[in-house]
Design brief:
By secondary structure, this protein is α+β, with helices and mostly antiparallel strands. About 40% of the residues lie in helices and about 15% in strands. The chain has one domain (about 10-220).
Length: about 230
């Protein structure tokens, strides 16, 4: 005997849709946040790898054993002659901002904790936007002792413009390595703990605005994961 199929009532459909809506409201933001974090870290990792590779290539091209002996440090008297030339020679530069942070970087950045904002200062560095959408500002020191300071906004002027989310700072050391808190001398010293050296900076990650210290070190310690 055939039984008639009993359809869903309007109330049952509405209740089901309401449940789906609640579940989506709870899960979608989390999934989007996770996806965005991974996107920021992927671009950051790619950009830092390219900077380190470019430094190694520069040393090879010029026959130098250290970055501090190359034209990145000795190419001239201005950041345009040193950092600017390095960026133009080894990267596809879409926007050349020179010593001005804007329009490569946002006009200001906030901290993850939301404690105010601060403007990016690149007057003593050189800023560009790369083909991958990332903004880079490099500051070459006046001596050959200190490393090159590098600022990266993984998506340029696009939001969220938060230090530690899409805005980071790290250093390019004399051996071509890129890190925050771990020097080449530390890497060579068996008694030096790399994770501990970085951990001394990570406490500032959530509150830093400019410079955006600590978060790059934290990401490296967590094996390229943004677990904060």
């Amino acid at each position: 005997m055939n039984k008639k199929f009993k359809g869903f009532t309007l109330t049952e459909v509405l209740v089901t849709l309401a449940i789906i809506g609640v579940v989506s409201a709870l899960t979608v933001p989390t999934l989007m946040n996770t996806y965005q974090k991974k996107a920021y870290v992927t671009t950051l990792q790619k950009t830092t790898a390219e900077i380190s590779s470019a430094a190694s290539l520069l040393m090879t091209d010029e026959g130098k054993l250290k970055v501090t002996g190359t034209s990145l440090y000795h190419g001239g008297t201005t950041q345009k002659d040193t950092a600017g030339k390095f960026l133009r020679d080894f990267f596809k530069v879409v926007t050349d901002c020179g010593s001005a942070a804007t329009p490569c970087f946002a006009s200001s950045y906030s901290s993850i904790s939301g404690s105010g904002t601060a403007a990016v200062v690149c007057t003593d560095g050189y800023a560009v936007t790369l083909a991958n959408g990332a903004a880079v500002c490099m500051k070459v020191p006046v001596n050959t002792v200190n490393p090159v300071t590098v600022f990266v906004d993984t998506n340029g002027t696009k939001g969220p413009n938060i230090a530690g989310r899409d805005f980071f700072m790290f250093y390019l050391y004399y051996d071509g390595s890129v890190d925050e808190g771990v020097t080449p001398d530390c890497r060579k010293d068996p008694s030096c703990s790399i994770s501990t050296a970085r951990a001394t900076l990570t406490s500032s990650c959530l509150t830093a605005k400019y410079p955006p210290t600590g978060c790059f070190a934290r990401i490296l310690n967590d094996n390229w994961e943004m677990n904060y």
